[in-house]
Amino acid sequence: MLPKMPHHERERFLAEPRVGVLGVTDPRGERAPLLVPVWYHYEPGGDVVVQTGREMVKTKLLLEAGRFSLCAQDDNRPYRYVSVEGPVTSVTDPADPEMREAMAHRYLDPEEARAYLKATAHQLQGDITFRMRPQHWRTADFAAFAADFAEQGKSDSDG
């Protein structure tokens, strides 16, 4: 069994600026779910928010499926991840400009964010904002496991 994160830790972890991997069902033929890296926004207790181009494959699949999952991870040891899945609760078309600005500042330093927003201003009318309410959470925090493993290694070498 994976070592799970307590509720407050999983919420805080997901709220940190990480690139997420969005997953959505892909009914085209015999394909696996579509998985793509995305910027996202999340505040504890709220919705997961993503923005994407109106003409993107993932947009069409999100609209058809009406739900998606998102996984964020820390690939530094000890490894941790949070995965959430749930229904799309709203679609804003065109994209919410305040959310676009918030996401740019979440992932970039202030100067880079301003430059990014200016350079991509034309995309705003072609993007859509999706909000998803997390229903199902999967988490793992291997810190306790790593500590136990390290302690076992110490006791083995003491013998």
Description of the molecule:
The chain is an alpha+beta fold and 159 residues long. The chain has one domain: Electron Transport, Fmn-binding Protein, Chain A (Pnp Oxidase, Chain A). The chain has 5 helices and 7 strands, in the order αβββαββααββα. Strands 1, 2, 3, 4, 5, 6 and 7 form a 7-stranded antiparallel β-sheet that branches. α3 packs across α4. The chain is globular and about 50 Å long. The two termini are 29 Å apart. The model has no long low-confidence stretch (mean pLDDT 90). One of its GO terms (molecular function) is oxidoreductase activity, acting on the CH-CH group of donors. InterPro entries: F420H2_bilvrd_red/Heme_oxyg, Pyridox_Oxase-rel, Split_barrel_FMN-bd.
CATH second-level architecture: Roll
Characterize the biggest β-sheet.
7 strands, antiparallel
Element order: H for helix, E for strand: HEEEHEEHHEEH
- Structural class, judged by helices and strands? alpha+beta
Rg from Cα:
19 Å
Shape: globular
CATH class: Mainly Beta
CATH superfamily: Electron Transport, Fmn-binding Protein, Chain A
CATH topology group: Pnp Oxidase, Chain A
* Domain tally: 1
> DSSP strand (E) fraction?
25-35%
Low-confidence stretches: none
Q: How many runs of DSSP E, i.e. beta strands? A: 7
Quote the average pLDDT.
90
Organism: Streptomyces luteoverticillatus
Keywords: Oxidoreductase
InterPro entries: F420H2_bilvrd_red/Heme_oxyg (IPR052019), Pyridox_Oxase-rel (IPR024747), Split_barrel_FMN-bd (IPR012349)
Protein name: Pyridoxamine 5'-phosphate oxidase
